[in-house]
Amino acid sequence: MAKTKATTGTAALAARIQRLREAIRHHDHRYYVLNQPEIADAEYDRLLRELGALEAKAPHLITPDSPTQRVGGVSDEAFKPVRHAVPMLSLENAFNEEEFAAWHERVRKGLGGREPTYTVEPKIDGVSLALAYERGVLVRAATRGDGTTGEDVTGNAKTIRAIPLRLRGEAPRRLEVRGEVFMALAAFRRYNERAAREGGETFANPRNAASGSLRQKDPAVTAARPLRFWTHSVGVIEGKTPGTQWEFFTACRAWGLPVQADSVQCGTFDELRRQYRRIEGLRDRLDYEVDGVVVKVNELPLRARLGMTHRSPRWAIAYKFAAHQATTRVVGVDHSVGRTGVITPVAKLEPVACAGVTISSATLHNYDEVKRLGIKIGDRVLIQRAGDVIPQVVKVIESSRTGAERGIRPPTTCPDCGGRVVREKEADVAYRCISPSCPTQAVRSVLHFVSRGAMDIEGLGDVLVEQLVAKRLVRDVADIFRLAERDLLQLDLVAEKKAHKLLTAISASRNRGLARVLFGLGIRHVGEKAAQVLAEHFGSMAALAKAGPAALEEVPDVGPVMAESLAAYFKQPATREVLRRLEAAGVRMTERIAQGPKPLAGQRFVFTGGLSAMARDEAEHLVRQLGGNTSSSVSKETTYVVAGEAPGSKIEKAKQLGVRILDESAFKKLIGQ
Ligand code: IVH
User: Fold this and answer.
1) 349 located within any domain
2) pLDDT tens digits, one per residue of 101-112
3) CA–CA separation, 292 and 320 (whole Å)
4) Alpha carbon distance 495, 502 (integer Å)
5) Residue 196, pLDDT above cutoff 90
6) H/E run at residue 240
7) What mean pLDDT comes out for the span 533-545?
8) Are 627 and 559 members of one domain?
9) pLDDT of residue 597
10) pLDDT for 40
11) Whose CA is nearest to atom 10 of ligand 1?
12) Beta strands 93-94 and 316-320: pairing type?
């Protein structure tokens, strides 16, 4: 009887898991393939969480194609060479109608007068990716590489929600499709803004963002990047083969592979031209970068007759849009200080009309780009606008030089505050003002300092901080603690009641402790967790400020990049001044260092799921106090995975790698509770 009941329970659990997976796949499909979401993100997350919880109860039911398995750990397979079963070719380009007409004519001739039909597809400026499915399950994703051999990026590709882990309907035995991974323009801008705010890596354009994101070692990093995918061609297909590109697209839709909705099939040359113009007309309205159209012969048997040249097929061509370009003269250079102190050279131009707007400046991105372009003040240059991205300098017209041009050098002091400018490491192309009292950076750094994860001063939002900085009441974070009621009453929208509230909040924040102050200072590469680890290790700001790079690198989780960033920060006289004033204002900059034995020294813990007796960060704190280390992803270096209530996919990863799994009570025993 009991056995029957247990069996029924298991069967019910399996059925529920199955239903949840189907529901999640259905919503992924609505969102990414049909572009018609049916539910809100929160509701989707709830389904995913429920599935995670149930799979944790029955780990033997976890399958690699489950939606919970998108973000795995760092894998040994990552970036291993993958030989493509069929080479990934590149395309011949046509830059004008004449070249396109010549291609069209060659195709007709090649087919001996048989009129093919064509597809016209937007050419997305991203990174090409090959996806291999076996019996409908995604088994490998590889980059193009040199066309013959690419790199295995399966772990990263699986995090892209537009890529189905399992195909819908009747899938071929073996299928390899190719497509483009890209970042939409709005997502790209949001990503860059956030990265700039948090001192992370920013990208020059969406293409670099997509390729950089796909080449991350840790899939969790890729998962946090808003990447998308569109299928554009077939590599290998075993089973029922489509007769045309259009049938292939129809099949892709049925398999749940996303296909671009702006693609069309058409016949005559005139129609091809019309479609080219139609898509060109969409260009500035699309939320992704399109640099032309790809025109392909639709019928696959006719493609076979046309064959290929040494590197590209004769049956397809990339018909590029005219770049929005113009020539003008560089009249000067601004060195513009961003909110994180990064200094960007901006070319001041003689105003010139380009694609319907007047352009008078163009970003030079960074000083390496200045060197690469060899650009000088006084030069005649070719500029271009791509999509609605900021104008760029394409090249210098060297034949127009007179000899009176002047070179462009990175500034050695900050143009806004006179502070020291550093280039933090060789590989980093950014020059940065690291003075904590630079006014341009003040608003940004104060907002970070008062934010929730740092000093958590409620009520001090951007409107007030901007006014405080503009009125010179606050120049750096230490000034916050000198604010008096009369200062606050000078601000718009602040009356007595609000002023009192703010002063109380400021006062209360004095006691947040070293970790929060340290994070709040916004030191490059020092995030919330690193701040905590450093605070617990050194115990006081004074001790930390004195530590050299070698002592810093002894701290678990502190690598050379962070150590160097900390050392450079504390070397600044302005830093010492701010710290002195924070201390004088009564801001606590100490943390209790755990004394006593370190029984967990050398051991690395990963937590998954919720613990009942304590919060996750408390548990992590305890581990560190006992000399252990914590990390967010499972690898071969992990000693234990602690599984609480409703653990995630880390369990499966731990099993794969043979890492020991502890439940909460075993964990408590281990830490002596
Ligand atoms: S078909 C042999 N279709 O452009 C044909 N490619 O310059 C293979 N691309 O490597 C490609 N949009 O990464 C095709 N609709 C589209 C495309 C497209 C973008 C990329 C692709 C390819 C590159 C060729």
Assistant:
1) yes
2) 999 999 999 999
3) 4
4) 11
5) no
6) none
7) 92
8) no
9) 75
10) 86
11) 90
12) parallel
Render pLDDT for 317-356 as a digit per residue (tens, 0 to 9): 999 998 778 899 999 999 988 767 888 899 999 999 887 6
CA of 319 to the centre of ligand 1 (A): 11
**What single DSSP character describes residue 225?**
S
The alpha carbon of 123 and the centre of ligand 1 are apart by a number of angstroms equal to 7
Q: Is the CB of 313 under 6 A from ligand 1?
A: yes
For atom 18 of ligand 1, the residue with the nearest CA is: 123
Does 299 lie in the same domain as 171? yes
Q: How far does residue 113's CA lie from ligand 1's centre (Å)?
A: 27
Which of 283, 298, 320 is the last residue in one of the domains? 320
Find the 561 Cα to ligand 1 centroid distance in Å.
Answer: 37
Does ligand 1 lie within 6 Å of residue 317's CB atom?
Answer: no
Position in ligand 1 atom list of the atom nearest CA 293: 15
**Nearest C-alpha to atom 14 of ligand 1 is from which residue?**
232
Whose CA is closest to atom 13 on ligand 1?
A: 128
Structural domain boundaries enclosing 521: 514-584
Q: 76 or 227: which carries more pLDDT confidence?
A: 227
Quote the tokens at residue 12: 């019910």
Pocket flag, ligand 1, residue 318 (CB < 6 Å)? yes
Q: What is the CATH number of the domain that holds 230?
A: 3.30.470.30
Report whether residue 330 contacts ligand 1, using a CB cutoff of 6 Å.
no
pTM for this entry: 0.62
Our measurement of the distance from residue 359's CA atom to the centroid of its chain's CA atoms, rounded to an integer in Å, reads 30
Whether the CB of 130 sits within 6 Å of ligand 1? no
Please tell me the distance from the alpha carbon of residue 659 to that of residue 673, in angstroms, as a whole number: 23
**Atom of ligand 1 at shortest distance to CA of 89?**
2
Indicate if 661 and 526 belong to the same structural domain.
no
pLDDT value for 2:
46
Q: Is 232 in the pocket of ligand 1 (CB under 6 A)?
A: yes
Helix, strand, coil % in the chain, rounded to nearest 5:
40, 20, 40
pLDDT in tens, 440-449: 778 878 989 9
Q: Whose CA is nearest to atom 23 of ligand 1?
A: 90
Same domain assignment for residues 194 and 57: no
CA distance 131 to 141: 5
A 10 A CB-CB count for 113 gives: 6
The predicted-structure confidence for 40-84, as pLDDT tens digits, reads as follows 888 898 999 999 999 988 889 998 889 988 888 777 788 899 999
Q: Please give the distance, rounded to the nearest whole angstrom, from the Cα atom of residue 373 to the centre of ligand 1.
A: 28
Distances 623 to 594, 618, 620 between C-alpha atoms, Å:
11, 9, 5
Q: Return the residue whose CA atom lies nearest to atom 3 of ligand 1.
A: 232
The pLDDT of 283-299, averaged and rounded, is 90
Calculate how far, in angstroms, residue 317's C-alpha sits from the geometric centre of ligand 1: 9
Domain harbouring 547, CATH code: 1.10.150.20
381 close to 395: Cβ distance less than 8 angstroms = yes
φ, ψ dihedrals at 567, nearest 5°: -60, -45
In a domain? residue 589: no
- Condensed to tens digits (0 to 9), the pLDDT of residues 128-142 reads 999 999 999 999 999
Task: Report if residue 415 sits inside a domain.
Answer: no
For the stretch 372-415, pLDDT in tens is 999 999 999 999 876 546 788 999 999 999 999 999 999 999 98
In total, how many domains does the chain have? 6
Show which residues are catalytic: 123
